[in-house]
Amino acid sequence: MLCLRLTPLLVLVVSLGAAFPQEGTPRKGCSLFKYKQVIFHEMKAMEKMQKEFRSIRRLDRTCNTRLLDRTWTSAHLSVPDRVLLVEAELNFTIAMLQRPARPSFARTRQRPLAFLAQAREDLQGCVAPSHQPSGELRQWLQNLQVAMERENTSCLEDYAIRHVFEVLGDLNCAARQEKC
C-alpha cells in the first residue's frame, strides 16, 4: 500500500503562484509554448518505456485503478483547471517512475522521467492561488488521493505508465489557450 498522502499535493496544486489573470492567460513567467507539440523523440522514449515495462510486468487483476478514469476530457476544462490537472498527473506519474526498478527499466525511464520533471517545473506558478478547481476536477483529484491511499503501488505504477500518453495529451491541451 502506498503511504503517500495527496493532501499536500492538492494544497500545492491549488496554491501555486499567481499566473492566470481574469481573462485566463498565463503570466509571463509561465512558459508552456514548447508543449503545444511534444517532440517526436520524447514520444518515442515514452513508447520504449511502456514496451519495456510491459515486458517485465504483468498487470495484477486485483487493481481498481478505474477510480482514476474520467468521463470528461481536459479540453472541457478551463485553462487553469487544465494546468492543475496536468500538474497532479505529472506529480503522480513522476512519483511512480521514481520507484525502484530493474536496471534495464531504470535506464529506459530516465529520459521520460527527465522530460516529465521539466514539464512539471515549467508548470510551477501557472495558476493563481485563488483559483478553485471545477467540480469535475475536484472529484478526480479526490479520487487520485483515495487511489494513492488504498491501491497497491504496483497497480498505481502500472496505471501511471499505461496512461503516460494521456498525460502528454493533457499537457499539450494545457499549453493551448483555446479549446483543444
TrEMBL record:
Cellular compartment(s): Secreted
One of the GO biological process terms: cell surface receptor signaling pathway via JAK-STAT
Lineage: Eukaryota, Metazoa, Chordata, Craniata, Vertebrata
Main localization of the protein described in the UniProt heading: secreted
Keyword Secreted on entry: yes
Gene3D superfamilies in alphabetical order: Interferon lambda
Annotated PANTHER family: INTERFERON LAMBDA-2-RELATED, INTERLEUKIN-28 AND 29
GO MF terms held by the record: cytokine activity
The family this protein is said to belong to: Belongs to the lambda interferon family.
Signal peptide: 1-19
Keyword annotations: Antiviral defense, Cytokine, Secreted, Signal
Protein's recorded name: IFNL3 protein
Organism the protein comes from: Sclerurus mexicanus (tawny-throated leaftosser)
Phosphoprotein in keyword set: no
GO CC list: extracellular space
